[in-house]
Amino acid sequence: METQSLLSGFCTDPTIFSSFRNAKNPLFFAPSPSSVSFSQRPEWVSYTTPQSSPQRAWSKQRLNCTNRVENVGDSISHGKDLENGVGRKKLAIFVSGGGSNFRSIHEASLRGSILGDVVVLVTNKRGFISIFGCGGAEYAKDKGIPVVLFPKSKDEPDGLSPSELVSALRRFEVDFIILAGYLKLIPLELIRAYHRSIVNIHPSLLPAFGGKGYYGMKVHKAVIASGARYSGPTIHFVDEHYDTGRILAQSVVPVLANDTAEELAARVLQEEHRLYVEVTAALCEERIIWREDGVPLIRCKENPSHYR
Fold first, then answer.
1. Where is the signal peptide (predicted)?
2. Domains annotated on the chain, with CATH
3. In this model, does residue 305 exceed pLDDT 60?
């Protein structure tokens, strides 16, 4: 059935579900994204208009802020006072593969560690329902999260164009875009529309072992071949090039003497899951601040005079 070409098992009633193209060639199927919440049932995604309810409590476990920044003065803009509280943010996650970082972020959101909700998943792989496709998108379908195909290409003519993607994310009222193993270059239209609101994770300590062609196991093989004693994930803001945006957070992982690329990858990935959840929590709590020189810092919640 045409209406199940992307989301097998999703309801296709045209009075309930909508797409960003005509009904004869839909790109994805999801409830109208005007402030809806999702609940999952077997072979069905239902939705309801949210009612006012107490905000979910969220974990007190946060980034370990050990570096005090002295004499920053007026060079930092703090934005909203954290004591005044912030509302829940809406997140769009971009994936190309298994999406383990996406899963960890989504699970953290559900348990209250992140003050935000994943409202849409974007993938560049249509065939996510097969073992050769995108496991992250299959997970999203199982959890009732709408899935969007991007970009449009010769192989994927039904994908969204950059301008259509921006419109789609606006309809979902997305606050932040989280790249979690998305291998395509982000178009300039999206970067301009979501200025300082798109972050990516890379499995090395940038700027080392980054740039076009450095992804997945290629990164870890290069790290080992270089003789580097340390590696680890880097989370950075996204600009128009691969892996050149401002660094937001890093975590160090040792490279052991007899490491294989697979062993190092597993160790770095474990740290990715921890770090990405903590940084996403900081984004949603509006604890990212910018120095005058354009360097982003993470303000510690427990002690606002400390930064990560």
1. none
2. 84-307 (3.40.50.170)
3. yes
